[in-house]
Specification:
single chain; alpha+beta; Beta-lactamase; 2 domains; five-stranded mixed β-sheet; five-stranded antiparallel β-sheet; 41% helix
Length: 638
Amino acid sequence: MRRRGKPLITENSQSFTFTRRAMVIGGLQASVAALLAGRVSWLAIAENDRYKLMSEENRFQMVLVPPRRGWIVDRNGQPIAINRSDYRVDLIPDQIQNAEQVIRELTTILQLPPEEVERIRKELDQAAGYQPVPVAENLPFDKYAAVTVRQPELPGVAPLRGFSRFYPEGAAVGHLVGYVGAANKEEYEAAGKDPLLITPGFKIGKEGLEKTMESRMRGTPGAKRLEVTAGGKLVRELASLPDKSGGSLPLTIDAGLQAYAARRLGNESGSCIVLDCHTGEILCMASMPCYDPNTFSDGISHNEWNMLSKDERHPLINKSLNALYPPGSTFKPMVAMALLQAGVDPDEIVNCPGGYQLGNRFYRCLGRHGGMNLHRAIAKSCNTYFYAMGRRVGIEAIADMGRKLSFGQKFDLPVVSQSFGTMPDTAWKMRRYKQEWSQSDTLNASIGQGYVIVNPLQLAVMAGRVASGRDIQPRLVKGQYPAPSMLPFPKEHFEAVRGGMWEVVNGNGTAGRSRLELPGIEMGGKTGTAQVRRITGSQRGQSGEWKYRDHGLFVCFAPTANPRYAASVVIEHGMGGSKAAAPVAKDVLTYLFDKNKAMAALTALEGGWGGDIKTRMDRQAAAWLAAQGRPTAPDGGA
């Protein structure tokens, strides 16, 4: 019986409804199954290579092996920068379970200073999981062994044996070769985020030849293929590709001469450069005081950096290339060449009454020399002669010769930077100051003062060109270079100037006390005193603080009979070339002809100074740190 107002539900209608719902659900299930099957097929077939690679990357890791840098050697093959075995400890962020506990344990084992602990924490927070964080480098074996023994208790700690840069001559070659260090963020990004640059133990050139010759010395990295667990623990090493060392860099430098010159400069602030007059090869380019590149490569403390940066003798500046000085009377051989080229008779006499009158101003000389010709003017360093003759020929003739003999030149050398100074003329002053050149400017320039500033390398090249008559170009890296051409000046001009320079040292000149004590070998030279500030009367160059005293300069060549070597020595605030610079040049040139004699003289001097240069520098550094309330050695040790 059917109820009133409701449809009648029969067995057939119920069966039909169930069948329709089952078909819809079944269709949906079939679609999902087909979709899943398709997806599985896609992953298993089309994406097989991709996921297989991802799986293998989870199982296997490729680790770069830093290449060993090429050696830097001197002209005789003696090492200047080498690699030596060292021990280090790194942290692998992904594998560390309790970072603070691990850091505390390593601090105790390795005796890490507080600033290093802070650095480790900071780098650990910023590092990617795969990027190792360096803890300590150049560890002694006992500390390395102590970490290795406890490695199972310190997950994430990776003790490694590798190579570090070592400079046998230390501070003697600091400014020359520079140093290496870990790449910073800017260097990493500039290299296209090369993973080699963040590999533990890998360092790049930061200064000097290490930086400019980086591509030659870097080498090619090796690699290791490791099998690891899901937790990152090493299972086994599957394969390895050895690294390829960088190429060696042979220099023109004589390492023994370089070390000797650095020691001979002693406590002075200055530069000593020696080059071959025939080829232009630089045999020595010492700048003191200097930092120890071994310390810089390992990383220095803030205290040591402050000590170096605040030192009034500026040990961070390469004085051979980047310091500029008025050349003083060392400029006069070049001016003499300009006078001869302009037609001045070398036998013409100029009377020296003690100075030169220009208008209402009297330009003083170093003495009352009487009648002076070119030869005697060079020997006695008579300002009056050069005032008079310089005014006669004019600044253009002087500037033109100066540029031909090196001044104002920037040389083609593999160095980070060089300051090339000023060889002024009328056009230069107009460009720089919007002023006309004056007669007083010419007088000042004629004796190497006024606007003239040069670097020590330019002085050495000038001496070499005058000594040889060749247009030598300074060289630092050994190689095949064209022979230097002869300068386009008469032979008689060079002989006249060299004769005056011979008189300076071997006759009645300004550097007679520095003549070489070697049978049959004589040195020609020219002293110079460069005024730092205007001091009048008898106090000139001698009163006041060290930094206000006059510079002492000397240029020279030897042997005078057949010049082979030329040199320049600059002693900052040395109060005179004959007093401070010429004796250094004498000993350094003696070393080239008689090493035993030169070493005996140096040993006697160092006995008076109180020890060799390294011992004195360490003592000074310790005193500085003690004054800052840190009675520790520069390397942070006890």
